[in-house]
Amino acid sequence: MTIELSEAVDEAHYVTFSADRRVMAVWYGANTVSFFLVEDPAAIVHIETVSIGEYRFGETSREDAEGTIDSVFAEYRHTNA
Q1: Most exposed among 42, 50, 57, 75, judged by the fewest C-beta atoms under 10 Å?
Q2: CA angle (43 as vertex; 42, 49 as ends), nearest 5
Q3: Are 7 and 15 a contacting pair, CB within 8 Å?
Q4: Chain-centre distance of CA 44, in angstroms?
Q5: Is the whole-model pTM more than 0.90?
Q6: Which residue from 19, 22, 51, 20 is spatially nearest to 34, judged by alpha carbons?
Q7: What's residue 44's pLDDT?
Q8: 8-58 pLDDT tens trace
Q9: Comparing C-alpha atoms, which of 44, 32, 31, 49 is closest to residue 5?
């Protein structure tokens, strides 16, 4: 399913891109991070949603999200190398 970039980042708390700029990670302030393929910014594709490792008391921090994002980006680099 493709969506527009503006729809994917609506209400995002944190957005970052992989080193090759092909994958975008979006954290909405909840306990998951969503990953999107952004080869065509007009029609991005949802790849997967990953749970953040430490989910305590109904809240996660940006640091928790960044750790999950870094781990997933490392997996993408490894599988696409």
Answers
A1: 57
A2: 130
A3: no
A4: 12
A5: no
A6: 51
A7: 93
A8: 999 999 999 999 999 999 999 888 899 999 988 888 999 999 988 655 555
A9: 44
Sheet holding 14-17, edge to edge: 2-3, 44-51, 32-37, 23-27, 14-17
Chain centroid to CA 21:
12
* d(C-alpha 3, C-alpha 50), whole Å: 19
DSSP code string of the chain: -EE-HHHHHTT-SEEEE-TTSSEEEEE-SSSEEEEEE-SSTTSEEEEEEEE-S--BTTB--HHHHHHHHHHHHHHHHHHT-
Is residue 36 a contact partner of residue 21, using CB atoms and an 8 Å limit?
A: no
